Amino acid sequence: MNEIWINDCSAGNEALVSGHKEILNLIFRISYLIGKRDCAALSATFEMLENRLRAYFEAEEKSAQSSSHDFTRHKLEHQSLLEDFQRIRNVLEAKQCRWTGGEESVFTSSWVKSFVQHIKESGRTMAASPAIPWGGIQSA
What we know:
76% of the residues lie in helices and 0% in strands. By secondary structure, the protein is mostly helical.
């Protein structure tokens, strides 16, 4: 992912940039592991990503609340992203690395595009919010 693009989407908020980079790194790792069919590492990385997404979404929500930002729509988007992620994760894990190219591309294209779109939108909507305390967030 292009560093300039990430910084631009996050509107200069270092906490957002850091969180997006970490999540995108996990997403790219999952895409790689899907292609390699490394089920053990894939399962562990799915777990890490889900934990980071939950922590990051919670931090975004707390930041929005502290700035009186209406977060209702954004929170629904978080819920939808998590549900889509969990659905794709469950399908791939149930296949135990015996998926087709079309099935693996559901994560690498469909879900990734949805999350990148979320980054673009959060960069615009959260830019005016105070910094999210990303460094203090602990994985579940």
